[in-house]
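To fix ideas at the outset, we first show an illustrative case, written as a sequence plus integers encoding its fold:
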Amino acid sequence: MDGHGAELFILPQPREWEQREGFFEMRYDQYLVLAEGTAPLAPESLEDLKEDMQRFLGFTLQVRRGSSRAGDMVLRQTEELREQEYTLEIGSEGILAQAGGRAGLLYAVQTLRQLIRQCGALLPCLHIHDYPAIPERGFYHDVTRGRIPTLDSLKKLASRMAFYKLNQMQIYIEHSFLFRDLSEVWRDDTPLTAEEILELDAFCGKLGIELVPSLASFGHLYKLLRTRQYAHLCELDNPAAEPFSFRARMDHHTINVSDSESLELMKKLIGEYMELFSSRRFNICADETFDLGKGKNRARAEEEGVSGMYTEFVRKLCEFVKERGRTPMFWGDIICGFPQEYRKLPEGTICLNWGYAPQQSAESTEKLYEAGAIQYLCPGVAGWNQWINKIEDSYENIRRMCGYAQQYHALGVLNTDWGDFGHINHPEFSIPGMIYGAAFSWNPQIPPFEEINRQISRMEYGDVTGEFVAVMAEADRYCDFTWEAAVSFLECKEEEREQVFREYTDATKLSRGQVREDNEKLHDLQKQLKKNLPAMDAGGRETAAACVLATDGIRIFNETGASLAAYYRREEPDAGKMAALAERLENWFYYYKKLWRSVSRESGLSQIQNVIDWYADLLRSFLFG
């Protein structure tokens, strides 16, 4: 219990801790002392701690180096602890945090921040001895398939990662970086620049986070291989023949491995991009090469096999990365089909083994482990194709994958946030999943779903009721006409639409009665969010408002799906209601765009706009009439 009688907790949960009798009373005239030997920890690394003091205490402590006195808060480096290991002693006469290195001291600081947020200036006496179960714990953010965040948003994400003791960040790039000599690729986009990457890299370094470059270099080269300049390097002929499609962007556009120009182009882009990062790693991606051997290399694939072609190209890219003094990383989905091929890759290559199912099995992890692969286990926050993330699915998936990481001695856990079909979910909705990854990769003692959600609600959103994440987690249960169904219906051939509609939707959920019932439940969730607003901090209230907006979108799409279902039941549409629904959709999207632009660049917003406009026009046409 803390000084106010409420339960005390830390995220991630410390490995060992003991609360003792008494309190330490913080005062404005005490010092934050960097003891002799703490040179790796720069004063600017303490800015977040000082900001929290000002916010929650009304005062902050001055930082100094050297000797300390009773009442001071002391940070000390010691050779008795490992780099990421720390101890925290809070006694009635002062605070002592000790660690083996800079990382451990930064983690002790994050623990102090969480204690101050809960206890104010009267901290309970306690002892903590803490260290991570998995040494490398990261978050992977898609900045290509719809959303390109603002630099401020990326910095905010890094700060929150540091708060929960994550130590690696990757941002996924296909076309969303302003490469030299590639203006045809990014000319209609709002890409990140070299200057911004350099600034983000320095910012992450201050927080103890390694910013690892990640660049598509094999599959998923949609925009690159649709240009006039490089279309000839695509495995399939005439890649730009079809108009833009969310589905095609995911499924096609693999580079032709038999053309020597392909390898030289990817080396050029990798070489240009890697120089912006202080990290000594590089993720070449190389995932989902679905088209390999199905076009220009069909004859070669029949003769040599796809596995050899895949491994050869990946090996050449990895060798180039190693020649430049970096450790290569790549996604493991393809090589899981022939794990013995891993042994042909350069020594030290890291395989990023992903799997996103709630009931994800350990099969691929075991196969790669037996093949001798150095692995990261890569779960996901389940936000792709969702207005609000499938939070319970992400909990189950991340819990399992973190367990497999420990069971099979993985080097790291890299929790992923993908943006399939436009990255429609507000980035804030992925934060609970990000915290799951931080907590479960740190401490193998995993809290129950309801308990950790209560803790996240209080710690991250300032919600004293502890209910916010539970409310957010319930929303996806009432999504009857999903974004994936809506996009798939739009993008298919007209003569296939009824078949596709039935394939992607559940007829029982899209009856008008069921949609009405589900929308009422969503409205109840909205009322609960609004009722709890006074119990939340400012950031929590902003996220709650975003949830209300997202659930309005779910309700409107539910009604749209129910109207389509009624049409396919050959019911006569009510033209007036359809026109009113179209207007609601357009009005709602106006506010959705305002929220998008508050955290993201324009990037792929126009592609989502096209879907919204298509459905509004469809509704006004009396459903094909």
The radius of gyration is 26 Å. The chain has three domains: 16-130, 136-444, 471-620.
